[in-house]
Every structure is written in C-alpha cells, then in structure tokens.
Amino acid sequence: MSGRQISIEPLTREAFAPFGTVIDKAAVAPRPMNAGKARRFHDLAPVAVADPDGQVVIGAVEADPYALPLRLNLVERHPLGAQAFIPLNDAPFLVVVCPDENGAPGRPQAFVTGLGQGVCYAIGTWHGVLTPLDKRQDFWVIDRSGPGVNLEEHLFGEPWIIAFA
Amino acid sequence: MSGRQISIEPLTREAFAPFGTVIDKAAVAPRPMNAGKARRFHDLAPVAVADPDGQVVIGAVEADPYALPLRLNLVERHPLGAQAFIPLNDAPFLVVVCPDENGAPGRPQAFVTGLGQGVCYAIGTWHGVLTPLDKRQDFWVIDRSGPGVNLEEHLFGEPWIIAFA
C-alpha cells in the first residue's frame, strides 16, 4: 500500500495556489480605514461564482474530528462556485485536494493548516470533506447558492492513506 | 439635543430585517452532511452583488473600540454590494443603520449584538463604521470587490447621540 500513502505537508499559499487560496491575515499588510480607527486586510480570498443565477452565501458547519492515519475514500468538487472555510478557532485541520486529470481526481495532496488559516477552494477543485484532527471544530462557510447541480463526488477504488511523515 | 438621542436596542433578526440579515447560527436548525460527521447551518446570509463585474471577497478588519455615548457624525453605504461582518470573538458590538429617505439617511437605529452574532448589510443600506464597545475587535468581512464606485458617505449636520437607554 505504500504507493497509496500521502504525507501531510504544512499549508502555504504557494503550495496551495493550484487549488485555491489560503485565507491568512498574517500574510497580508493591512490598510488603514475609518479615519485610522480600523485596519483592513483586503481581498484575502475571492469567492468566485461561475453562473449568473448563483450568489454567495454565508453559512456555518460544525465538523467532527477524524483520526490519523486517514483513509480517504471520497473527494468532491463544486463546478459552479468556489467554497471557503474559515475556522472559528486556531486549531489545525487537514486540507486534502487533488489535481484534476481528465475529469477525475489525481493523486491527493494533504496539508495541515497553521494558526488562524482558512482555505478557499477554487471552482472545480477536488477536495476532501472538512477534517478536524483533534476535536469538533466549527467553521464559517462562504460559498455559492443557487439552482443547478453544484456537487460532483468521486469514490476511489481503494483508499489513500494520509498521515504525517 | 434630546431629539438627537438614539437608544440602543438588542439586535434581532426581525428588527434588523429592513436593513439586512443577522448572521446567527443559533437561529438556524442545522442539516447533517458528510455522512453524519458534520452539521451545516446553511444560508445564514446572502452576500448580494448588484453588478456583473463585481465578485465577493473575504477580508478581515481589526477595529478599535468606541466609547458610549457615541457621537455619530457619519454613515456610509455601498450601492454595488452587500457587506457582512462576522466577529472573531463573542464580544458585543454596536450596529447603527438608517432607513433611506430620498437618497439620504433618516433617523438612525442602533443595535447591540448578542453572543456570536454578525450582520450583513443589504445593498445600499446606510450604516455606521465598525463599532466595538470595549476593546479592539477583529472581524471577517465578506463583501463585493470590483470596478466602479461602491461607497457613498453622508455627514450629519449635527451628530446623533447613541447610548443605552
């Protein structure tokens, strides 16, 4: 099974760029606003919508934790909109994404978030479900809502085994 | 000056409905997702965009606190998109909005948020700047980005005085 093993790497903007955007205040220089009474970290992540009938909505998710090594059987993607997850606390969570290869997910990459980081999956990016590592974690979700089919799922024939190296 | 005094009320979805949406997980029944491993609170607030050239972005703001009674000199509005603020902690903050009266803000209404509440100002809603009450407060901001003028400000001839009753 060694060919099916995936090592978890730290999440960085550069490594994640093919899949979307890391939401990370610490990576941005703020600009003053409100007569100097506030500082804005602008454009941490765009939340793109592919179709004129969709719009962005704010939601929330409570997610239960997973144990490592993780057996990854399923990934999904959203063809009509980007999808952002922002944790409500500073606990790390696992981010699993796959390159697209002719409409199917290729070999997964696994990242663990740093303090305060969230992610925004670009439109159509294959990704795993929300994966807290230690205990239940709550997230804000900013994504597309609207008519049409915005979910594709892919079941792997055999699971990928994901763990720290 | 008593005619210029505004009493702060608790923020509720009903009272705020003419101005936008209260973002409040506690007001929504979650739905199961991810094979029962997560619960989603969907559509807490739409983030509408008025023009095809705009898109929604995620940003953040650090805002300094204000003392009460607040002297409200200025409100602003965004004609091209809704604007949502979600606090990173549970501290209350002040939400000041005004009805529009022929293109100018009418008498303000002032609300104080409850535990975990955020707000989304509807497109074109007159509102005050971010107003934490006790200490610096950080927020996620979800709003429109794009070309065009998306800010109107209104300076009041004399300030409104905002305080708890």
TrEMBL record, chains A, B:
Keyword Lyase attributed: yes
Q: Name one Pfam family in it.
A: Ureidogly_lyase
Its pathway is: Nitrogen metabolism; (S)-allantoin degradation
Enzyme Commission number(s) from the entry = 4.3.2.3
Q: Which UniProt keywords apply?
A: Lyase, Purine metabolism
Q: Which family does it belong to?
A: Belongs to the ureidoglycolate lyase family.
Query: In its UniProt entry, what is this protein called?
Result: Ureidoglycolate lyase
Organism this protein belongs to: Methylorubrum podarium
What is the gene name?
allA
